[in-house]
Amino acid sequence: MISASDRRNWKIYAEESGELASEVVTKAVLSEKIRLADKPLILHADNGSPMKSATLRATMEKLGVLFSHSRPRVSNDNPYSESIFKTLKYRPAFPSGGFKDIENARAWTYRFVSWYNHTHRHSALNYVTPEQRHKGKAPEILAKRKKTLEEAKRKHPDRWRNRPIRNCSIEETVYLNPEKESREKRRD
């Protein structure tokens, strides 16, 4: 289970089940005190049997979480999951021959998640770490970056050639699969 900006809650099990999925979702919602007063919390999942189980559905209803499922045979319907798997598999330390056992997989994943949240500057978060975003530090960091870029442009306008400085704002709205109009507006 991943959020759009961090990978704080994760678990590796030897098998999949609705009960285990319910456990992970409950822990994530309760440990992070996830509640958005005016916005629904939505879990987007694949169409595997654990994610469609009655157990998970009951847990979601109890927690007030809405369900969203990938469309059948649409490979890019869950871009956050696809992105994290690519980042994970392209890490230099990722074992090319697979993990020796489940404990080895858990230990490696623990280190990966720590790196991802505390060190990795995430392109979708405008190059702040997920932890900086989670702790509310992103606006201050991005404001400082904007000031630095504006100063650099003022001192060396020839390097910028009528181009604007990099966007130094954080996206407040995250889309799973934005409509064409939304994508075009966000590019502007």
TrEMBL record:
Protein name: Integrase catalytic region
Superkingdom field: Bacteria
Molecular function, one GO term: nucleic acid binding
Domain Integrase catalytic: 1-138
Gene Ontology biological process terms from the UniProt entry: DNA integration
InterPro entries: Integrase_cat-core, RNaseH-like_sf, RNaseH_sf, Transposase_IS3/IS150/IS904
One Pfam family named in its UniProt record: rve_3
